[in-house]
Amino acid sequence: MSLLRIAVLAPLLIGIVSAKEKPKITIRVVETQASDRHFNYEVAGTPEKSTTNCRDNSGYGSVITGGPGIVCNTTTTPATASHKDTISVAQANVLAVFPGDKHVTLWCQYGFRKCVDLEKGSYGAEVDGETVWVFVPDLSGKITKIKYRHNGGW
User: Fold this and answer.
1) What's the pLDDT score for residue 113?
2) CA angle in degrees (0–180, nearest 5) for 86-88-90
3) Hey, which residues does 50 pair with through a beta bridge?
4) Which of 26, 112, 118, 124 is the most buried (most CB within 10 A)?
5) How confident is the model at residue 102 (pLDDT cuts 50, 70, 90)?
């Protein structure tokens, strides 16, 4: 009975695994252009705030009821005005040639994930819809998959 299950399920499992395979191609990088993406945002202002602290220096009065030895200090933090600011995030736009001489721009943004300015040359890649995973060797020779997005042609 268990051999029958294996005989029936094995082709189904192999079909599921192979359905997830992504096409592997070789791309040729022609140039990488660096750019910055600018995000504008507003920083809210803060209201003025005062804090008063009292203490009894006389030895016989009470801070609550008052008395001749009560000393109070008030500290005031001034209000701040709201203001606008800008943050810049570095990006890479890779001009690459795909199989069939298709000219494609690949885009990645630093900060959210690993992004590499690719040197001219050939790289292995895996295509998954609009996402392209490029296989990049590091200095030790270890291959790392870097995620880029298809961003049109050139």
Assistant:
1) 80
2) 175
3) 76
4) 118
5) very high
| Tokens at 79, concatenated | 């209000």
Could you write out the three-class secondary structure of 40-69?
A: EEEECCECCEEEEEEEECCCCCECCCECCC
Write out the H or E segment, with its range, that includes residue 12: helix 2-19
Output 40-44 pairs: Cβ under 8 A, ≥24 positions apart.
40/84, 40/85, 40/86, 41/84, 41/85, 41/86, 41/87, 42/82, 42/83, 42/84, 42/85, 43/82, 43/83, 43/84, 43/85, 44/82
Range 18-39+88-150 classified under CATH 2.40.50: yes
* Residue 7 pLDDT exceeds 60: no
Any bridge partners for residue 41, and if so which?
85
pLDDT of amino acid 118: 94
Phi, psi of 56 (to 5 degrees): -100, 115
> How many C-beta atoms lie closer than 10 Å to residue 125's C-beta?
22
Numbers of helices and strands, H then E, in the chain:
1, 8
Taking the domains of the chain in order of start, what are their residue ranges? 18-39+88-150, 46-80
